[in-house]
Amino acid sequence: MKIFFEIRKQKYLEALDKKDRAKAVEILVKDLKVFSAFNEDLFKEITQLLTLENFRDNEQLSKYGDTKSARGIMLGELKKLIEANPLFRDKLNFPTLKNSRLRTLINQSLNWQHQLCKNPKPNPDIKTLFVDHSCGQSQPNGARAPSPVNNPLMGAVPKPAGFPPLGAHGPFQPAPATLPTSLAGWMANPSTVPHPSASAGPLGFNPASSSAIVKRPRTPPTNNPAVDYQTADSEHVLKRTRTFGISDEVNHLPVNILPVGYSGQSHGQSSYSSDDLPKTVVMTLNQGSIVKSIDFHPVQQILLLVGTSTGEIMIWDLGSRERLVHKNFKVWDHSAFSIPLQAALSSDYTAAINRVTWSPDGTLFGVAYTKHVVQIYSYHGGDDLRNHLEIEAHAGSVNDLAFSYPNKQLCIVTCGEDKLIKVWDAVTGAKQFTFEGHEAPVYSVCPHFKETIQFIFSTAIDGKIKAWLYDNMGSRVDYDAPGHSSTTMAYNADGTRLFSCGTNKEGESYIVEWNESEGAVKRTYNGLGKRSVGIVQFDTTKNRFLAAGDEFLVKFWDMDSVNLLTTVDADGGLPASPCIRFNKEGILLAVSTNDNGIKILANPDGIRLLRTMENRSFDPSRAASASIVKSSAMTTFGVSNPSAGPSVMDRVTPMSSMVAMNGDNRSLLDVKPRIGDESMEKSRIWKLTEITEPAQCRSLRLPDTKNPTMPPIRVSRLIYTNSGLAILALAVNAVHKLWKWQRNDRSSTGKATASVVPQLWQPTSGIFMTNATSETNPPEEAVPCFALSKNDSYVMSASGGKISLFNMMTFKTMTTFMPPPPAATFLAFHPQDNNIIAIGMEDSSIQIYNVRIDEVKTKLKGHSKRITGLAFSNVLNVLVSSGADSQLCVWSTEGWEKQTSKSLQIPPGRVAAPVVDTRVQFHNDQTQLLVVHETQIAVYEAPKLEHMKQWVPPEASGLITHATYSCDSQSIYVSFEDGSVGILTASSLSLRCRVTSTSYLPTNPNSRVYPLVVAAHPSEPNQFALGLTDGGVIVLEPLESEGKWGTSPPAENGAGPSSLTAGATSTTDQAQR
């Protein structure tokens, strides 16, 4: 805007200087008046220049010279403005070009122009670049040859002839041949090295000249608009973009197993911001042993494969939080192994896992163990896991494993402690290549391809990086990793950028991007620790971001900036160098934890995906279809037309291949009806889960020092601390109680659990946190309320008297304010500013109060009875209030004006009390609003308060006393006057589990005890706590063997839709209870 203003101002001054007042007035009205809205005083001052005979009489313009000098000054100012604009960063300086760049461009252009010549000249004339070149019958180079792309006989085989570098055109003389100096150049310059590669088994087809493809790229086909081919004069000349980020290896798969798409998502960098990073912890998975490797399924993105230090393999369905598969390390066939290995296994039958990884289509996965062995499993959905291959791959530890597609045939690439890289047929297990050349154990492998050239990067623990083609010619490059570190290499999603990350023996870690054209480090990213514990692991996502686990954090970078973008501690509990892994779309991130678990982090799309996929397991029919197609393409003979994908015949008659893959002779006719029958059977047998006995769940009554002879003092408010390490309760006598869990052998995290008894905590001073009370409004009759700061350092609370601010460490009262009347009835912190508090009052008003300056900013009026609920949405920038009048109001947090209001719909046949608490809480998506009323649970969509769903409990349960979302917003915990708790599936508002009071309370027919309030753990979605009428607090969790509270009824049973439309952002803040 300032740029436009400076230009228009200069035009205005030039018109005044020429005494052309009519032109000046026109510029003032048409061009400058628009800026008056931003600075009215400046516009008035500019207008006053019309009254002056010479505008230089204005003091600020007294130094104005002639038009030429003024324009020069203006251009200088504009240059500064443009250079300061971050949008133009790195775009204003002409790039530094090497002296040889022009020669390279001319060579590439000549090669491109003449690539289809039938009889190419040894040295094509440079003049042929002056016009578009096309060889015909009359051309000296001969007739146009068929395109190698479309020629069915040639397939993808390049022509053997290639133009040499331009050598007969004056100054453009090629340099003497030297060893290749780039990561890309070795493909064009195969060199003979003293490290031959031994080959065993059938050799795949090798083109006569791999360099021909590199030096003479194919003409872009016109029949594939989905693929964007790069031009020759960029450093990406060898890099081919791929449709939707799916590699060529899986592009030929049938449609029914392609990854699930999400609206608005692409791999374009400009469409992402750091807000798209998965940073919200949505669940924690308990593994039981140290996590060594993790990998998301490439198609079903909620399936997570895990390998541990004890050799365990697990597959988790994140949608249902079920562990689908659990396998311990076990050798399938001892007799097939060498005698030394048999002896080693007989003395120590244990092995840790170094790597687990899925095949590109997700029908297979590989496991690399610390003892010689690689095992390949075929996965068919659910818990259907079958042994496929067991290979004695290396002498000693197998350090890494990956899948690749040389010659369109699926292979397994391994590396190990024996300093070797080996390639195996993924169908038969036959060894195809052995690559020798490293002088230290090989740490990792990274298969990749450019055009039709398949190759493998390998890294060793001495920091050496080598590259190999699938041939007998040895390594093509020999580089040093930064800091001579043990390094992992990875390409971004579309395969155009290469990164590496590693840690050396001194603990120094490096994460870099490579310039493949130059064979050098392009940029080194800042922010990794100088003394890392273990080897730092990293991953890439969305063609935009890098992530690494370091210093007990997950660190993120923008690929185009060397500075650290942001960090996430995942609510604590991470090891020094955690394992990390994105799913394919980058909307979920798995991170290993200190307590042998995995935390799943999600962005808003990930949260929506998990909620949508709840109770929807992996579709076995998709896996079966995938395995059929893949097995037909994985025969030892390959496929006849690899570029075309499977034929119709491949898809309908793969029985022999299926037997080879799966080890049984069942046909599709056997499989599909069985799957359908199982689904129908599950629908028929589903029933509500009833928890009626203490043995059916884990419950813990928190310890208390109350005198048993004293009358019960009911708990009126209850909340977990944001860290999940403690529970805070407020009783009707205005006294707070705090229970803290300690770290010990039974609880390494120190988080709240029903398995460990916490301490009723009090500072050494022995004081209590007790609210101020009012004689006219005693606490027994008042409406208590409290709110906890985000860092758990202080609590704001009221019990009919002044509002008190307490220090949570010392229990000391820091200040009191707002004496009644009216009394505060609900408190909520502003999500962006802890100094701003929304205070619901007994007189039905809402006061927006600034604690720092002790001032009421504004007072909101819209209810007719006291305020009973407040909830902020930091996405919609609104505050939603609810009152004892059963009314909802939406207020803008920018101007605090009321946007809309709506009265709650009372269910037919039910009569609401004249004054009844109505609570509100936002879903994690910050758009859906949970409304809790004694007669119903309802879901509205903000900000228009559109009524989406309603659940009315049976009258036998009594009235609803309270309800809250679980921390992941996938469940709703509802407490009732009959003492029971209902667990609803949030997406459908269907009751899936009922916990009766007999499961957590001793039987006493003379007492009527029931929960008044329910609180959800901030990071454990299946844990909740109850505040009871007898003053007790109960923590409840499902049995470890169950893992969750029941299962949702299938849609066929009339449960209704399984999902709602989610919003755009998530939050970890808890709702006010």
Automatic annotation (TrEMBL):
Residues 1039-1073 are annotated as: Disordered. This is CTLH domain-containing protein. WD repeats lie at residues 391-434, 860-901. Keywords: Repeat, Repressor, WD repeat. Residues 1-23 form the CTLH domain. Signal peptide: none annotated. Coiled coil: none annotated. InterPro entries: CTLH_C, Topless_fam, Topless_Znf, TPR1-like_2nd, WD40/YVTN_repeat-like_dom_sf, WD40_repeat_dom_sf, WD40_rpt. The keyword Cell wall biogenesis/degradation does not apply. Residues 1056-1073 have a biased composition (Polar residues). Gene3D superfamilies: YVTN repeat-like/Quinoprotein amine dehydrogenase. SUPFAM superfamilies: WD40 repeat-like. One of its GO terms (biological process) is primary shoot apical meristem specification.
